[in-house]
Amino acid sequence: MEKTTVTLPNIELFKKQALAWANKFNVCLLLNSNEYQSNIPTHFEWTLAVDTVNLVEGKLGSAFVSLEGFLNEKKQTVFGFLSYDLKNEIENLPNSLPDYLGFPHLFFFEPRYVIEVKKSQVSINRNYPETMEIIDAIQAMKIENLQAVSLDFNFRTEREKYLKNVADIKSRILAGDFYEMNYCIELFAEKVTLNTTCFFNYLNDKTLAPFSSFVKYFDKFLLCASPERFLKRKGNSITSQPIKGTIKRSENRIENDKLQQALQQNEKERAENIMIVDLVRNDIAKSCQTGSVRVEELCGVYEFNTVNQMISTVSGTLKNDIKVSEIIRNTFPMGSMTGAPKIEVMKCIDALEDCQRNLYSGSVGYIMPNGDFDFNVVIRSVFYDAAKQYVSLRSGSAITFDSQAEKEWDEVLLKMKAMREIFKVGE
């Protein structure tokens, strides 16, 4: 089926109306780059996949096999997500922690409708006049104003326990168990009724993150404002861009330049980043031709709407005829959300954290028919279960031997800032 392209005057309004229209279906997924122009170009500027023609839900033990079989049958781009807890299929890592989010471990679907926006042009995978009928239906949608609420949020891990666990992590680092661990916590609220599309639009407008995504999986929602790429494939090239190193952003240009310089020169933050770069190089090398893995940029500092981040770029040339599922399996979960060495820190994560990460620390993205793909890292996100009326915010930081527990706690709260402000969550 050919797609039809039209030019619309108020494209930002159309995007919000299109998301509201898509939210009427059981499944939809939005990828939004917010036209970020730095060193992390994306294939899609704004793409909304709506409703399912075919889908795969991978179960632990056979998830990657199921994904490869699904891809072999498809001639269209598929969209979906990977849960962090797929680690239990990749390694022998049983996890008895409670799961409060409930997303499948792996989910991909071939959408019925694909709506793409580039600048002021909208294209839909439908012939005329069906395209115009869909656009008319979208433009008839009324956008509700955001009704900000002050929710009674609770820390699943209280500050005192967090500080104690950081001390425990540092003692394990001193003992030589591992070098660095990403330790995460949760804020949650119950009995919540949430207008998910309004809240996503508000979050997105505040952050303008390059790997933003909105996922509706029946009664479960992800509102994601991620600045981080997990893994991208284009032809025989593969790229990962781990983030390690965070500092606040100032609206004052001179002050923000000083903040960026301070981050660039911070030995602890650089050490965290370089450790993960080493891990990512090793992970990528499993899928790449010998000697082709390279660090294209080390510890670059980039400005986002709410924070400054330290990002490195690692790339390589893929082996011939390697499968998509094998490339992902060789690199998942992403090193920036585990630590190094990966298996040991994942064991410690399971021992110290208070709930399964599920889709947090997982990934959302697409896979094209030719095997090209791009996936984000699910961080800076709001999770919502409409059936249980449950809202969850997650955040973490890298713990090294030089970490100061109080400062790590402050960094975790800084990363939650944009989401917390939506709900007027106090300190």
Description:
The protein is an alpha+beta fold and 427 residues long. The chain has a single domain, classed as 4-Layer Sandwich (Anthranilate synthase). Helices cover 31% and strands 32% of the residues. The chain has 12 helices and 20 strands. The protein has helices at residues 11-22, 63-72, 87-90, 130-139, 159-174, 196-207, 253-265, 267-285, 324-331, 342-352, 405-415, 417-422; strands at residues 4-7, 27-32, 46-58, 78-82, 106-118, 121-124, 154-155, 180-190, 211-217, 220-226, 229-234, 237-241, 243-248, 294-303, 307-317, 339-340, 363-367, 373-376, 381-385, 390-399. It has a 20-stranded antiparallel β-sheet that branches. The longest helix is centred in the middle third of the chain and has 19 residues, at 267-285. The protein is globular, with a radius of gyration of 21 Å. The N and C termini lie far apart (52 Å). The mean pLDDT is 92.
Give the SSE layout:
Elements: E1 4-7, H1 11-22, E2 27-32, E3 46-58, H2 63-72, E4 78-82, H3 87-90, E5 106-118, E6 121-124, H4 130-139, E7 154-155, H5 159-174, E8 180-190, H6 196-207, E9 211-217, E10 220-226, E11 229-234, E12 237-241, E13 243-248, H7 253-265, H8 267-285, E14 294-303, E15 307-317, H9 324-331, E16 339-340, H10 342-352, E17 363-367, E18 373-376, E19 381-385, E20 390-399, H11 405-415, H12 417-422
Antiparallel strand pairs: 1-6, 2-3, 2-9, 3-5, 4-5, 4-17, 5-6, 7-8, 8-16, 8-20, 9-10, 10-19, 11-12, 11-18, 12-15, 13-15, 14-15, 17-18, 19-20
Helix pairs in contact: 1-4, 2-9
